[in-house]
Each structure stands twice: as structure tokens, then as C-alpha cells.
Amino acid sequence: MALTDWYCEEVLVGALEVDAVFEDDRVLAFHHPRPSASPHLVVIPKRHVSSLLAVEALDGELLVSMMAGVQHAVRSAGLDSGAGFYVRANAAAPGVTPHMHWHVLPGAAANWPQPE
Ligand SMILES: [Zn+2]
After folding, report:
1. How many angstroms does the Cα of residue 104 sit away from the middle of ligand 1?
2. What is the mean pLDDT of the chain?
3. Residue 32 falls inside a structural domain
4. Of 4, 80, 100, 107, whose CB has the highest number of CB atoms within 10 Å?
5. Report field, pTM of the whole predicted structure over 0.85
6. Within 10 Å of residue 15's Cβ, how many Cβ atoms?
7. What's the burial of 108, exposed, middle or buried (CB within 10 Å: 0-12/13-18/19+)?
């Protein structure tokens, strides 16, 4: 059974209210409603893009807006000091919502190999 694209089906149609920290005409950045860290934010395109691998759907303006969303998420959550932060993007992994989303997470909560 395919995973639900809850970004398109709930967040972007307003069925699920989110605590937004940044929005322009291309992207939305908000606190994740089911956080796995504190804080845990997510940045998504407002139009459907399946993942970073959907290169035909990406363009420079969208990527600039995604980065602006990350910057606002980091600063609004105070992740620009202390342990820092990670940006984690989905890419066709099993169990991942099929809508491109970049998680913004505190560095101390990162659950993957640390850079040497
Ligand atoms: Zn979608």
C-alpha cells in the first residue's frame, strides 16, 4: 500500500494546521506536527515534487526558496548556535512520504553517522 502524501493531502490544503515559520509562493517551512526531536522542523515545496531525484520538477527558484525555508527554520528555532543542525532530505527510501521534504533537526539529535 502506497504511503499517503500527507503534505499534499493535509498540510497544503489546510486540513492540518501547522505552525509555520516561513512561507513564500513556492515553499512552506513549519514545526513538524509529530516531532522526532526538539525542535524538529520541515521544509516542503508547495507544488508536488516526489523527491530530490525528481530533477525535472526542480528549478533554481524552488531551490532558493527551499534554502530560505531552511534558514528561517534554523534561526527561528535557535539552531544556529550550540550543537548546530542537520538538514536531512528524503530520497526514495522505503517508508518515506512521497513528497520532497527536508527535515531540519538539532545536531545533537542526529541519528546517523557523524562526519569525521
Ligand atoms: Zn505531494
Report:
1. 19
2. 88
3. yes
4. 100
5. yes
6. 9
7. exposed
